[in-house]
Amino acid sequence: MARAMAAGSRRWSGEVTRNSNALDLDRGVFTWRDPARIARSLKRSAERSARRKSGAYRSAMSMLTFYLNRAGRNLPERQKRVLDRAKAKLREAFGREPSRSRRGTTS
Length: 107
Fold this sequence. Notes:
The chain is mainly α. The protein has a domain at 26-93. The protein is built from 4 helices and no strands.
């Protein structure tokens, strides 16, 4: 039973990432190696979306955080660092204050 639920959960989170109803994401955006490019893409998607329920910044950051939290344990350390840097770039793109990161990856 737990095994079936875990498999369903993985499909659920993957489905959200692929077919978000709030944002139209570029294909493979979370696999890119350039944090600035990821941030630009998320910002553009969030600003263009008419279906999001909150502000553009919050929607973009939520999608990035969601992906990191769901896929994080299976991501290579290098890609985790890229996505953490993308968070910092996203904050910068929206004119927000840098986070006080525990990992020290704000640049």
